[in-house]
Amino acid sequence: MTSVKEFRIEREPTATTLGRGAFVFTDDYSVFDWGKMPDEIPDKGASLCSMGAHNFELLEDEGVPTHYRGVVDSGTGEVVPLADAEDAPTEMAIDLTQVPDLPREGRNYDYDAFHAEAADNYLIPLEVVFRNSVPVGSSLRRRTNPADHGLDFEEWPEGAVQLEEPIVEFSTKYEESDRYLTRSEADRIAGIADIEELEAVAREVNRIVTDRAAEAELVHEDGKIECLYFDGEIRVGDVVGTFDENRFTFHGQQVSKEFIRQYHKRTQPEWVEAVGAAKQEAKAQDVADWKSLCEESPEPLDEGVVGAAQDLYAAGTNAYVGRELFDAPSLVDAVDAVRNL
What we know:
CATH class: Alpha Beta
Structural class: alpha+beta
Strand order of the largest sheet: 1-2-5-3-4
Radius of gyration: 20 Å
Largest sheet: 5 strands, antiparallel
Number of strands: 15
Helix content: 25-40%
Shape: globular
């Protein structure tokens, strides 16, 4: 189980065969790696499932292999394309790959043991991040210089930087605290999966999602993919191009989970600061479980904020998918409501 979706197994994968299963999307949300937050956002699960399904079908149409099999129709229980689902679905049928244990001592993870068990059928233990812009506050500004990416700046400018070519990075997936990797580190962690092919797949996914977003008047700022390796082929896994995995803007306003992050920074700064301090302390102590060191817990959102978030997810999904899946205000109205919070 993840923090916002449940995982159901129908048939276990083996070293040589894929299994069958499903993601069941909940209305939970998570920010700052906290896991399940105190609130639920109605319609959020159906929103993420619908956007993810739409994107997987776009990828398949463009020849990008994925683990997607369809959505589960709530009325019949059958696996169907999104267009054939009577209502906004909350369940996505997928192929399953092996996910070996990743042993660790403190913050040292044994990827050799992971791959010894993985054989040729496994979930690649990386997240591949793509960026079409570098906004103020991006971690990229703290970790790198513009010249590292071929940009003609001595220092990062004060405003957001729009990129002519996307920047692709690799980070860990199964470590307690995510960390960005050098190319050689990512290559080692990927195992027999080719790091160049992983990057090429990420760039193609980014192109497809960016083009679809533009048709809905959304700007695709950044996102990530996770992939599996099976039968010598890299396939896109997890969920792609949703308001949780990616950042989108509409007329300059965030239409993604990012607005909730920023709201917590403004209204619960003590908790946000405590999370950052706990992560630093865990690193100093060489322990993985940073959350046990956090001295604060998040408070529930105001009811009006929950309603605004619900409308934003629903209206954004209607616009992106091009179908009125939800009874929601226009995206313009939903964005205006969030802008005024």
